[in-house]
Amino acid sequence: MSTVQRTVLIVDDTPENLDLLKAILAPHYKVKAAINGEAALRLAAAAPPDIVLLDVMMPGLNGYEVCERMMADTALRHIPVVLVTALAESMDDGKGFAAGAVDYITKPVSAPVVLNRVKSHLDLVDLQCAAKDALGALRRGDSSAAEKRLAAILDGEAA
Fold this sequence. Notes:
Strand content: 15-25%
CATH architecture: 3-Layer(aba) Sandwich
Distance between the termini: 5 Å
Strand order of the largest sheet: 2-1-3-4-5
């Protein structure tokens, strides 16, 4: 994995939830926080994070609406969005996934679950980038570079 510190944007209208997620994530990642959907979209547009943890139930723009807007924005659609919700049944109806979310975490959150989900989705992003690099090398006719990149992916060194 890359030595560059990754950025996590957390979005929740409850200060205690933001504080808890910050405490879990800050030792491992750069953390930015927003208290509503509008602020989240502004922060993401100004400096796109590597991943977003997004509360579903918020006043103003709810989590589904924020996710849909991110997926409609070409500069933001590549960012994985993980919904954080007390509404487990809301994920069962597929609304979050239809909005573009890649996963969800139920409240109350567990530190190991949060850390593992964030790491897993960042690892997937790294693999996608590495695969695109390898494909680019193949298209340029640089089979040696493509082979090295693919070997790194298979060895778990995608970043």
